[in-house]
Amino acid sequence: MEGIFITMEGPDGSGKTTQIDLLKKYLESRGYDIVIAREPGGTVIGEAIREIILNPEYREMSHMTELLLYASARAQLVNQVIKPALLFGKAVICDRFVESSAVYQGIGRGLGVDTVYEINNYALGEVKPELTIFMDLDAADGIRRKKSQTDLDRMELEDLSFHKRVVEGYRQLAELYPERIFPVDATLSIEEIHSMIVNEVKKRFFSE
Ligand code: TYD
User: Fold this and answer.
1) Is the pTM of this model over 0.90?
2) Chain-centre distance of CA 132, in angstroms?
3) C-alpha 207 – ligand 1 centre gap (Å)
4) Whose CA is nearest to atom 14 of ligand 1?
5) Of all atoms in ligand 1, which is nearest to the CA of residue 53?
6) Average of pLDDT values for 53-80?
7) Where does 62-105 show beta strands of DSSP type E?
8) What is the per-residue DSSP string for 22-80?
9) What is the DSSP letter of 40?
10) Share of the chain above pLDDT 70, in %
11) Which DSSP helix (H) or strand (E) runs through 196?
C-alpha cells in the first residue's frame, strides 16, 4: 500500500481538528495506519520552535524571522515524521502545512507567496501533499468561535483585517490550484463536511 499525504488548512476556528479526527477514523476503516501531525510542532524540536513563534511576549519578532521559524519546524517534521511514515505506506494527515505560511506570512504579513514557496521548497524536498482540504470560513466567524476560548496566541492576537487577508489568501490559492486544494464550506454541519471530504478522498485515492 502506498502512503498518502493530506493536509488540512483554514483560518483559526474553522474546525480543522474535528474533521481530522473523523478523517482519521475513515482512513483507518480503509486499512491505513495513520500519522497525525500538527504545525507548527509535531516533533520535540518543532514544539520548542512553536513556543517561540506563538509567545505573545515576542512582539518584536520580524516577519522574516517568523517565516523562517515556521519553515524550520516544517523541515524537522518532514524529515523526522512525514517522510518516514510515507515510506512505510502510512496515511499522514497534517494540521496546517505550507499553505498556512503562504497565506499568514506571504499574504497576511506581506512577504509574498512566491518567497514563501521558494523558502519552503528547501524544507519540503520532494515531500508534497497530494490533497489539501481548505475549511473555508469568514475571518470574523473564525475569531468569534475562537474568542470563546481563552489564551489567544501571538497570531490570534492580530486584528480582523489580518485574518481577512488570510482567508482571502486561502480562497485565491484554492482557485489557483484546484487540482490539489479542495475547498469546503466550514459553516455546514460536521457530518456534511465529513461526507464531502470522504467523497473527495475516495475519488482521489481510491478511484471510487
Ligand atoms: P494552530 O496550532 O493551528 O492554531 P490553533 O490550534 O489555535 O488553530 O496554528 C497556530 C498559528 O500559527 C495559527 O494562528 C496559524 C499560524 N501559522 C502561520 O502563521 N504560519 C504557518 O506556516 C503555520 C503552520 C501556522
Assistant:
1) yes
2) 8
3) 32
4) 155
5) 12
6) 97
7) 91-95
8) HHHHHHHHTT--EEEEESS-SSHHHHHHHHHHH-TT-TT--HHHHHHHHHHHHHHHIII
9) S
10) 98
11) helix 190-206
Of ligand 1's atoms, which has the minimum distance to the CA of residue 70? 22
The owner of cell 497530494 is 130
Q: Which of 8, 36, 39, 120 to mutate to test the pocket of ligand 1 (most atoms within 8 A of CB)?
A: 39
Alpha carbon nearest to ligand 1 atom 16, residue: 155
Q: Whose CA is nearest to atom 1 of ligand 1?
A: 39
Beta-carbon contacts of 31 under 8 Å, excluding residues fewer than 6 positions away, are 1
| pLDDT digit string, tens, across residues 41-66 | 999 999 999 999 999 999 999 999 99
| For residue 150, pLDDT beyond 80 | no
CA distances in angstroms from 33 to 17, 103, 137, 201, listed in the order given: 18, 30, 30, 16
Q: Which stretch of DSSP H or E encloses residue 122?
A: helix 113-124
Q: How far is it, in rounded angstroms, from Cα 196 to Cα 193?
A: 5
What digits encode the pLDDT tens for the residues 153-165?
888 888 899 999 9
